[in-house]
Design goal:
The protein is mostly helical and about 160 residues long. The protein has helices spanning about 1-15, 20-30, 40-55, 60-70, 95-115, 145-160, and strands spanning about 75-80, 85-90, 120-125, 130-135. Strand 3 (about 120-125) and strand 4 form a beta hairpin. Helix 1 (about 1-15) packs antiparallel against helix 2 and helix 3 (about 40-55) packs parallel to helix 5.
Length: about 160
Amino acid sequence: MARRAVDLCVELLHATPTPGSVARVLRSHGEPSPVLTSSDVEDLRSAAVRLEEVFGASSVSGAASLLNRMLAHPPRLTSHEGTAWHLHADSSDEAPWGEWFLSSSALALSVLLAEHQRVPGGLCASAGCRKPYLDLGGGSPQRYCTPRCATRERVAAHRARTPT
């Protein structure tokens, strides 16, 4: 669920989302047959803006406070459209896409925060990127969304130090 939150945030905030492109991301994460309108995409985008704040939180307590405000409904089990039983934290199986995305992502990120006792990810430190990422590993905190962004920043820093 947390990976879906990141992938949808990237699609909604760092691309030009369309109902089709967002539906493709949803299908890649197991949603059987998402049918979206432009209005749904705008609602999802609004939820992504709020979730991006969690990834950008400077402290665990700040992230927890943001997540608590997003958890409007208690978790419930559902098996809609013949799927396996799973948790939802939205109002119903007919809830709008934006409500579903915000509540289910907040639930997943809350579980990760509780398990690891840290913000469950971050925003890429590359000034030209700023995409959200999950940081579930131990050791040093992750700073970049991909090795490619990290390499790009290292090369730029090296070139800035090297005299011409």
